[in-house]
């Protein structure tokens, strides 16, 4: 079967919700993990993003693994921290989910941008997408580091060839950009419902 770098995460997305429509911890984190190979192809430009995403996945996964049946539903981890008043801590799982969701917002926006503006350079696409998503939550230091890193973005044509594999990469990106954001929006809604969607760096 023809595959692009996106194929595995598109497959796994079918498992993110339980039959009752609950967000499941492991499948959601697995989808996020499957996006890491896509980020790898950006090289140096995305080192910061990749380590941030990887760290937040590990934090949530470690919590899930302490009691998989108790934490089967993603938001049960957050509800527990909200109840214990530890959700606002910088090393909390709530903080991890918030920043993981924001980083994924950035990637979705970036791939939308690449589809919508076939003539823009990779650096332009990265910078525009950053401005629309992560920038408002970052302080000056993070913002400056990010801006410098974006200048290292790879050549767009080469990048698209690398992630295409043997699949129809544009169709896969379109599917990714239409399916994955529904989960991200749900995360934001849930975090907003407990007053934690607007924490800054």
Describe the structure.
The chain is mostly helical and 201 residues long. Helices cover 66% and strands 0% of the residues. It is built from 9 helices and no strands. Helix 5 packs antiparallel against helix 9. It is globular, with a radius of gyration of 17 Å. The N and C termini lie far apart (42 Å).
SSE topology:
Layout: H1 7-12, H2 25-40, H3 47-66, H4 74-84, H5 93-116, H6 122-132, H7 140-150, H8 156-164, H9 169-193
Helix pairs in contact: 2-3, 3-5, 5-6, 5-9
Offer a few descriptive terms.
single chain; 201 residues; mainly alpha
Using only C-alpha atoms, the radius of gyration works out to 17 Å
User: If you average the pLDDT, what whole number results?
Assistant: 92
Number of strands: 0
Q: Estimate what percentage of residues fall within beta strands.
A: under 5%
What does this entry show, briefly?
66% of the residues lie in helices and 0% in strands.
């Amino acid at each position: 079967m023809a595959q692009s770098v996106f194929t595995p995460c598109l497959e796994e997305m079918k498992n993110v919700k339980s039959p009752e429509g609950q967000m499941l911890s492991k499948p959601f984190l697995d989808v996020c993990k499957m996006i890491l190979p896509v980020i790898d192809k950006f090289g140096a430009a995305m080192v910061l993003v990749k380590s941030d995403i990887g760290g937040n996945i590990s934090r949530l996964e470690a919590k899930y693994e302490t009691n998989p049946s108790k934490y089967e539903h993603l938001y049960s981890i957050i509800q527990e921290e909200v109840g214990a008043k530890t959700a606002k801590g910088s090393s909390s799982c709530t903080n991890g989910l918030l920043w993981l969701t924001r980083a994924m917002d950035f990637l979705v926006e970036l791939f939308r941008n690449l589809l919508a503006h076939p003539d823009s350079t990779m650096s332009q696409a990265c910078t525009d997408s950053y401005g629309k998503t992560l920038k408002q939550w970052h302080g000056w230091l993070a913002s400056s580091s990010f801006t410098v890193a974006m200048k290292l973005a790879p050549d767009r044509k080469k990048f698209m060839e690398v992630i295409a594999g043997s699949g129809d990469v544009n169709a896969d990106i379109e599917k990714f950009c239409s399916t994955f954001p529904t989960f991200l929006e749900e995360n934001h809604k849930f975090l907003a419902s407990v007053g934690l969607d607007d924490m800054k760096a």
